[in-house]
Design brief:
The chain is α/β, with parallel strands linked by helices. An eight-stranded mixed barrel has the order 1-2-4-5-6-7-8-9, surrounded by five helices. Helices cover 48% and strands 18% of the residues. The longest helix is centred in the N-terminal third of the chain and has 28 residues. The structure holds ligand C2E and magnesium ion (3 copies). It comes from Thiocapsa roseopersicina. This is cyclic-guanylate-specific phosphodiesterase.
Length: 292
């Protein structure tokens, strides 16, 4: 209770709360403008086939190019976008942008290439996700067979029954489905069977320890074996060292993403990477336009 003549802890607490609430409202407003003003950009991280070393796909990763603050990573605004529902419009934008870019790559003869796009739980909850994905494919002319949608374990589990149906309707169109950050959530082997998926992405935290911790190595081994038993391709996220890649290769992992090969790149840098890809992999470990 406020003491007469003094300021109580409660007063400070409300002040703090007001300040952080105001900051949130302000950030939300700026993010809404960023979306409308074209300040969002998509970068693309190559997905590499381990057996051949070839880039077979890219994952679209959104960034906010703020005139004052520079390039802002998604970790700093996706959670807010999710809480405020702005993720619906933002997610639509990324999907449309990635498919549009995918068509541009096809037009310059870069193929075959899978484009992966992250979906949030909120987008899945919206109900019209199947229609809105179909609309984007129609509008851009990007082939459904080249689109992959990534969902985290927790997004999949949230409304399990409905989600199974949504995923099946997306897959009926030819779209591939991936489970992202595998191993960080429920990791229930049973749910992997219920959802009809195409790709299992092992979370970076296991890959980080794979060459140090026998346990991590055993877990990754088990995930790969289980993924393969269920007919899925397995991708390792966040591969940074040759040692990690060598282990993954002996374990029979299919694909990887990571700084070892490339950071997420601007579209033009992806184009040059893909142009040189057939001639060997030495050229593009680091590209000038990569994320700073
Ligand atoms: P994610 O989908 O698991 O994406 C992988 C993240 O790991 C990316 O971070 C990527 O830049 C980073 N990464 C890849 N290889 C390496 C590596 O070798 N070392 C390290 N240290 N990091 C690596 P980013 O771009 O900051 O994205 C973070 C997360 O933000 C994504 O995790 C995804 O959950 C979310 N996100 C990004 N774009 C979108 C989007 O368009 N929609 C939604 N809903 N979420 C998005
Ligand atoms: Mg992802
Ligand atoms: Mg991931
Ligand atoms: Mg992640």
């Amino acid at each position: 209770r406020a003491k007469a003549g003094g300021r109580s802890r409660f007063d400070f607490y409300t002040e703090d709360l007001t300040r952080s609430a105001r900051l949130r409202v302000e950030t939300e407003r700026r993010l809404r403008c960023a979306l409308a003003d074209g300040q969002l950009v998509a970068h693309y991280q190559p997905q590499v086939e381990i057996a051949t070393g070839r880039v077979v796909g890219v994952e679209a990763l959104v960034r906010w190019r703020d005139p004052q603050r520079g390039l802002i990573p998604p970790g700093e605004f996706i959670p807010l976008a999710e809480e405020t529902g702005l993720i619906g419009a933002l997610g639509d934008w990324v999907l449309h942008e990635a498919c549009r870019q995918g068509v541009l790559w096809m037009e310059v003869g870069i193929a075959p290439l899978v484009v992966a796009v992250n979906l949030s739980a909120h987008q899945l909850r919206q109900g019209d996700i199947v229609e809105s994905v179909a609309r984007v494919l129609r509008q851009t002319g990007f082939p459904a067979e080249r689109l992959e949608l990534e969902l985290t374990e927790s997004a999949l589990m949230e409304r399990e029954g409905d989600t199974v149906g949504v995923l099946d309707r997306l897959r009926e169109q030819g779209i591939m489905m991936a489970v992202d950050d595998f191993g960080t959530g429920y990791s229930s082997f049973a749910y992997l069977r219920r959802f009809h998926l195409d790709v299992l992405k092992i979370d970076k935290r296991f890959i980080d320890e794979i060459d140090q911790q026998p346990d991590a190595r055993t877990i990754v081994d088990a995930i790969i074996a289980m993924g393969h038993a269920l007919g899925l391709k397995v991708l390792a996220e966040g591969v940074e060292t040759q040692a990690q890649l060598d282990i993954l290769r002996t374990q029979g992992c299919d694909l990887f993403q990571g700084y070892l090969r490339s950071r997420p790149l601007e579209p033009d840098a992806v184009t040059s990477l893909l142009r040189t890809d057939g001639r060997g992999r030495s050229l593009v470990l680091r590209v000038a336009t990569e994320d700073r």
